[in-house]
Amino acid sequence: MASVRYESAGRVATITLDRPERLNAIDGSMPAGIREAVERAGADDDVHVIVVTGAGRAFGSGYDLVEYAESPSPWSQEMPWDPMLDFRMMWANTQDFMSLWRSTKPTIAKVRGFAVAGGSDIALCCDLVVMADDARIGYPPARVWGCPTTAMWVYRLGAERAKRMLLTGDLVTGTEAAAMGLVLESVPDADLDERVDQLAQRIATVPRNQLMMQKLMVNQAIDAMGLTQTQMFATVFDGVARHSPEGTWFKDLAEREGFKEAVRMRDSGEPIAPDTERPTPGKSRGESRES
Asked: In whole angstroms, what is the distance from residue 272 CA to residue 270 CA?
């Protein structure tokens, strides 16, 4: 698990996203590494609770855009693209992240710095999220080139506030995230480690079978709301977003000028991909509107 570090002490296991030089950006091995670490904790009868954190100054900065946006990658196929090939790849990652949600042992995300894009997916798959007041969370690829495949925003926030976040792609601070009910609480960064440890140690005193029953009961209510179906649509839409005219614009821009410039333009507040041409309905791409 080159991108993920696992350790345990007493009744608490810690899973660390371990690419600090890239702000723990998701590479090809991280999703499976998370699942393997969760399974390891699940098989350890000494472990009662799992803490998920990031090495260095961030929780997670999303998918590594140097790897996936600046260079050719499986996430951007040549046209015509195969949506089911894309779905198979992204669905596997989604299920790896969801191992945190489905784990029979409680999971706590400890967020400092950033939990953005795919990093927010990982954090929001945990049962509880505690953020530093000045940490930032959001899903900027909702503006172009993505859809949150885990769909946890709507289940945590409800429809209107989830739309507020995903129709803008804005980031909010830990303080704001706690106020809107996205995360459990936020604390000053200097107190984050101590607060998460207090919470983990308190949970760890409960018998494993009790923890399992309470978590399964709550999760079943969410499952009954259609979580699996929603995630299926979200994962398909994520592939569509990367292969739409605007998604192709973003990818081409990242390859030509680097992902930082593409992200700057995505988040600038100016219209996205203003030069993107769309075929008129009922006409081929080769026909003009006057023809």
From this structure: 6
Which pLDDT value is given to residue 274? Answer: 81
Q: Count Cβ atoms below 10 Å from residue 155 Cβ, excluding itself.
A: 17
Residue 1: per-residue pLDDT? 67
- Do 89 and 74 touch, CB atoms closer than 8 A? yes
Predicted confidence at residue 221, as pLDDT, reads: 97
Q: Is the CB of residue 60 less than 8 Å from the CB of residue 17? A: yes
Average pLDDT, the chain: 93
Over the Cα atoms of the chain, what is R_g?
Answer: 20
Q: Tell me: the pLDDT tens digits for 37-65?
A: 999 999 999 999 999 999 999 999 999 99
Contact (CB, 8 A) for 146 and 165:
no
Confidence of residue 277 (pLDDT cuts 50, 70, 90): low
What phi, psi does 50 have (nearest 5°)? -120, 130
